[in-house]
C-alpha cells in the first residue's frame, strides 16, 4: 500500500499518543510501556490498521503493536484510532521497516506475529524482501516466544506457495494452512478481516492462510 505522500504525516505521528518514537529503548521493556505483563502480538505491514484495532478492541488482555513502513499509511491508522468512541490502552504503532525488528524486540518478547496481504515482491531477485522469506523467518525466530506462531493471510497464489516452501526451508513447522479461508468452517471462526481481505474477497478472490511455529 503506497498512499500519496502526506507532508504533515511525520509531524502528526511525532506527537500522537499511540506512536512509539524511542522504539529501540523499549526493547526488553514493552511490559513497562503497556504497564502490564500481558502477551504482546505484532502485525508487520499493518497498513491502515483495521485488523489490529479490531483485535485490540476484542482482546483487552493482549497488547498489540502495529508496524508500518510508510508514515502516510500509518497516519490513517492513527486517524482511525482517533475516531474510536473508547480509547484502547492496549495498542501502539511504530513507523519502521521490519528488517530492523530485532533492534526493537528482545528475544522471546513477542507472543505472536501477524502478516496480512504482505507485498509480493514478484521479481525473484527481491525474494528476500518478502515478509515470509526464510530471511524474515530467521528474524522472527529471534524475537518470538518458544510457543509463538506466525500467521499469514494473502490472496496471492504465488506468494502463498512460496511462503509454504519457506516455512519448511526455514526449519519451521507448518501448523495449518488453507487455500480458501472463508469457506473453511473451522479456521474461519473468529476471523478478523483486514482492509485488503475485505477488498479482494469482495472481488471473489479466495483468501489463503497459514500458521507456522518452531519445531521443538
Ligand atoms: N495488512 C494490511 C491489510 O491487509 O489490509 C495492508 C496490506 S498492504 C498490501 C502491505 C503493507 O505492508 C503496506 O502498507 C506496506 O507499506 C507495508 N510493508 C511492506 N513491507 C514492509 C516492511 N518491510 N516493513 C514495514 N511495513 C511494510
Notes on the structure:
- The chain has helices at residues 9-15, 30-34, 50-58, 71-83, 134-143, 157-169, 195-202, and strands at residues 40-44, 63-68, 91-95, 110-116, 144-154, 172-178, 208-214.
- The termini are far apart.
- With 216 residues, it is an alpha/beta fold.
- It has a domain at 1-106: Rossmann fold (3-Layer(aba) Sandwich), CATH 3.40.50.150.
- It is built from seven helices and seven strands.
- A seven-stranded mixed β-sheet has the order 3-2-1-4-5-7-6, with helices on both faces.
- It is 30% helix and 22% strand.
- Bound molecules: S-adenosylmethionine (SAM).
- S-adenosylmethionine binds next to strand 2 and helix 7.
- The site of S-adenosylmethionine has 20 residues, from strand 2 and helix 7.
What would you call the shape? globular
Largest sheet: 7 strands, mixed
* CATH architecture descriptor name of one domain: 3-Layer(aba) Sandwich
Oligomer: single chain
Give the radius of gyration.
17 Å
Number of helices: 7
Identify low-pLDDT runs. none
**Helix content percent band:** 25-40%
How many runs of DSSP E, i.e. beta strands?
Answer: 7
Task: Label this structure with key terms.
216 residues; alpha/beta; Rossmann fold; 7-stranded mixed beta sheet; 30% helix; binds S-adenosylmethionine
Amino acid at each position: 500500500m503506497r498512499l500519496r505522500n502526506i507532508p504533515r504525516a511525520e509531524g502528526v505521528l511525532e506527537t500522537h499518543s499511540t506512536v512509539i518514537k524511542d522504539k529501540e529503548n523499549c526493547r526488553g521493556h514493552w511490559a513497562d510501556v503497556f504497564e502490564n505483563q500481558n502477551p504482546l502480538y505484532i502485525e508487520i505491514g499493518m497498513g491502515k490498521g483495521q485488523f489490529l484495532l479490531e483485535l485490540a478492541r476484542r482482546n483487552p488482555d493482549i497488547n498489540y503493536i502495529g508496524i508500518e513502513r510508510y508514515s502516510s499509511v500509518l497516519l490513517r491508522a492513527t486517524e482511525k484510532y482517533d475516531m474510536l468512541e473508547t480509547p484502547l490502552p492496549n495498542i501502539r504503532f511504530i513507523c519502521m521497516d521490519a528488517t530492523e525488528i530485532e533492534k526493537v524486540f528482545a528475544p522471546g518478547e513477542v507472543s505472536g506475529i501477524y502478516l496480512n496481504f504482505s507485498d509480493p515482491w514478484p521479481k525473484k531477485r527481491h525474494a528476500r524482501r518478502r515478509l515470509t522469506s526464510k530471511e524474515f523467518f530467521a528474524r522472527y525466530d529471534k524475537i518470538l516466544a518458544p510457543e509463538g506462531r506466525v500467521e499469514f493471510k494473502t490472496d496471492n497464489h504465488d506468494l502463498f506457495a512460496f511462503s509454504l516452501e519457506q516455512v519448511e526451508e526455514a526449519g519451521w513447522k507448518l501448523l495449518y494452512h488453507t487455500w480458501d479461508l472463508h469457506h473453511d468452517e473451522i479456521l474461519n471462526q473468529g476471523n478478523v478481516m483486514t482492509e485488503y481481505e475485505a477488498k479482494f474477497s469482495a472481488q471473489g478472490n479466495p483468501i489463503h492462510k497459514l500458521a507456522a511455529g518452531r519445531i521443538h
